[in-house]
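[DERIVE STRUCTURE TOKENS]
===
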Amino acid sequence: MPSAGQLLVRDRLPAIMELMARATNLAVEARRTLPAEAIVGKPDGSVVTAVDVALQVLILTQLAEWFGALPTIAEEDSASIGGKPAALAHCRVLLESWGVRVGGKSENGSTGIDEALHLGRIDGPTHDIDACWVLDPIDGTQGFIDGDHWCPCLALLSRGTPVCAVNGFPTILGGRVFTAEAGAGCWWMPLSGGEVSQAKVRTDTLPPDEVVRVVAPARATPSQTEARLAVGRSTGHDCALVHSDSQAKYGHVIAGLADVAYSRRGNGPGKYVWDHAGAVLLAREAGAWVGDTDGGEIDCSRGRRLVANNAVICAARGLGPAIARELAERDRVEGVRVHHARCSTELRHG
């Protein structure tokens, strides 16, 4: 039975797909003339651009017009480029060119951009919320700047579970937008427009003489490279690396360009939910194996971070269980504190 969240957006899914395709294409164009002053360093060492912020304003403003200000977990906020006048000015120029009106300061001193960035904003568990957006306007901002892989990512959670997702993948198969609804498969269309067709991951077993293709970070260190090769070889196959970051790494598996993509937690606080929620649903609905090191589900209900999970694993060709076992053993050897996720066969297997 469809969830309350699914029923809310079902009639608008084609429009949401068009919105995310437009947002992706606008970002592609904006990247061509991105000035250095529109790139801002964050306290955690990552970067954000005026394009990230403008896209979030564009997407949340349109979603609010359609559905009202639903609860939202999104990456950017008013601090993202706050105190950076040149970046904020470029953001305004972009929004004006895109036809988004945000106005000036209100009586309380906030700007239209501030208000749009905080539409429905929450910071807490979502397991009791019928419909909650999860948005990363540009996942992989460094890749966006450098010309590597990046993607705008939107998911809808219903009581903490991804039930709809739409991601733009400008660097995969010539540029495509992927969409999925729980129980209805994964679909894609060219970013330039055209026919919508179903995306299906290969589920036939990888023969012994074939190479397993494992996704590694675009800027992988020597130790990361060796670790990824070793994880791939643990399946009994020779291994080749496919370089990608962001949710695009899962898009590579869905598109048949890689066999395995994963993100480990280690002893950190947990991965951000906006970096994984959409792809978890897209990959599952395409038929991939999606799960944690213990075979459990990816729990997106805890708020901003995936605090219940040790890793997010996405695999085709029957390779998921072997990858999960290898990563679990690495956690044990490295002394990583294990977090136990809830188990769900439905979420692990498409």
In short: Residues 13-32 form the longest helix (20 residues). The chain has two domains: 4-199, 212-348. The first strand starts at residue 39 and ends at 41. Residues 106-110, 343-350 have pLDDT under 50 and may be disordered.
